[in-house]
């Protein structure tokens, strides 16, 4: 079995200015020598150029929080994979539950965005997860694996070589309520099994991150699970020292 390098990603959502981005990146840069995990930072579009400049020469992925399914054209307000590559971006979140909930992103849109990211060589961090009502109705695996299958539909294992998956139960995002390590592991294991049904190598190499109220206090127990390969961190990634503690827990 392939050893998967841990992956810790910061999702800043709608936060931070250019000066704050630079200060954060300078702090992280100073600590990279001690870090073995892959690290990604996903700021707003306006902060990408600053993040790219400040992390230049490091292995940190600068990720967008979203991208257009289109490459160019009359799509006001959209940002394409071409433009993300042009600014120096190397990764992108796709299908975050806040995009699905507040911006009407369907599985079909998510599939097209994944395909756009792969087309432009951006490492895709595909977000999937169930709502509280779905969990309470016992539909967690059905919902999560359904989202996964519909997103990957039409992509070959070779095309999905760089895929990173983030399992984020919607009820755990920004609520301070985390899935227990064992509950998260159950879903991660089901995700890996579904990948294995497609391709054994894809299953053994794909990093599956947990997201939802991850913080320096709970990261180690989550990361100790066999199928939890990292974390997608929102609130606790805004402060560089807090984020670094999580990265160190994974290193
Ligand atoms: P949270 O957000 O860590 O603040 O719960 C995680 C996410 O939405 O990616």
Please explain how this structure is put together:
With 251 residues, this protein is an alpha/beta fold. The chain contains eleven helices and eight strands. It has helices spanning 18-31, 48-54, 81-87, 97-102, 107-119, 132-136, 140-152, 181-198, 200-205, 219-223, 240-250, and strands spanning 7-11, 38-42, 61-64, 91-94, 123-128, 164-167, 207-211, 230-233. It has an eight-stranded parallel beta barrel with strand order 1-2-3-4-5-6-7-8, surrounded by five helices. Helix 5 crosses helix 7. 2-phosphoglycolic acid binds next to strand 8.
Task: Give keywords.
251 residues; alpha/beta; 8-stranded parallel barrel; 11 helices; 8 strands; binds 2-phosphoglycolic acid
Topology:
Layout: E1 7-11, H1 18-31, E2 38-42, H2 48-54, E3 61-64, H3 81-87, E4 91-94, H4 97-102, H5 107-119, E5 123-128, H6 132-136, H7 140-152, E6 164-167, H8 181-198, H9 200-205, E7 207-211, H10 219-223, E8 230-233, H11 240-250
Parallel strand pairs: 1-2, 1-8, 2-3, 3-4, 4-5, 5-6, 6-7, 7-8
Helix pairs in contact: 5-7, 7-8
The structure holds 2-phosphoglycolic acid.
2-phosphoglycolic acid (PGA) is lined by residues 11, 168, 173-174, 211-214, 232-236.
> Biggest sheet: strands, sense, closure?
8 strands, parallel, barrel
Cα Rg: 17 Å
What is the CA–CA distance across the termini?
Answer: 19 Å
What is the H-and-E element order? Answer: EHEHEHEHHEHHEHHEHEH
In a nutshell, what does this entry contain?
This protein has 251 residues and is α/β, with parallel strands linked by helices. The protein has helices spanning 18-31, 48-54, 81-87, 97-102, 107-119, 132-136, 140-152, 181-198, 200-205, 219-223, 240-250; strands spanning 7-11, 38-42, 61-64, 91-94, 123-128, 164-167, 207-211, 230-233. Helix 7 runs parallel beside helix 8 (181-198).
């Amino acid at each position: 079995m392939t050893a998967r390098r841990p992956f810790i990603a910061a999702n800043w959502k709608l936060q931070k200015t250019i000066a704050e981005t630079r200060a954060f990146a300078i702090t992280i840069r100073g600590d990279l020598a001690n870090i073995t995990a892959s690290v990604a930072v996903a700021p707003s579009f306006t902060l990408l150029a600053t993040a790219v400049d400040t992390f230049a020469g490091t292995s940190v992925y600068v990720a967008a929080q979203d991208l257009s399914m289109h490459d160019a054209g009359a799509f006001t307000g959209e940002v394409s994979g071409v433009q993300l590559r042009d600014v120096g971006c190397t990764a992108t979140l796709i299908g975050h539950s806040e995009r699905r909930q507040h911006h009407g992103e369907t599985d079909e849109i998510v599939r097209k965005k994944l395909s756009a990211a792969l087309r432009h060589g951006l490492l895709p961090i595909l977000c999937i997860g169930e709502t509280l009502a779905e969990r309470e109705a016992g539909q967690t695996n059905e919902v999560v694996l359904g989202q996964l299958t519909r997103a990957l539909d039409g992509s070959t294992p070779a095309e999905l070589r760089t895929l990173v998956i983030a399992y984020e139960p919607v009820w755990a995002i920004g609520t301070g309520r985390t899935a227990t390590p064992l509950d998260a592991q159950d879903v991660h294991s089901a995700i890996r099994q579904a990948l294995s049904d497609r391709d054994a190598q894809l299953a053994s190499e794909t990093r599956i991150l947990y997201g939802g109220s991850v913080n320096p206090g709970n990261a180690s127990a989550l990361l100790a699970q066999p199928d939890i390969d990292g974390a997608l961190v929102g609130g606790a990634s805004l402060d560089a020292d807090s984020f670094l503690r999580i990265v160190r827990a994974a290193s």
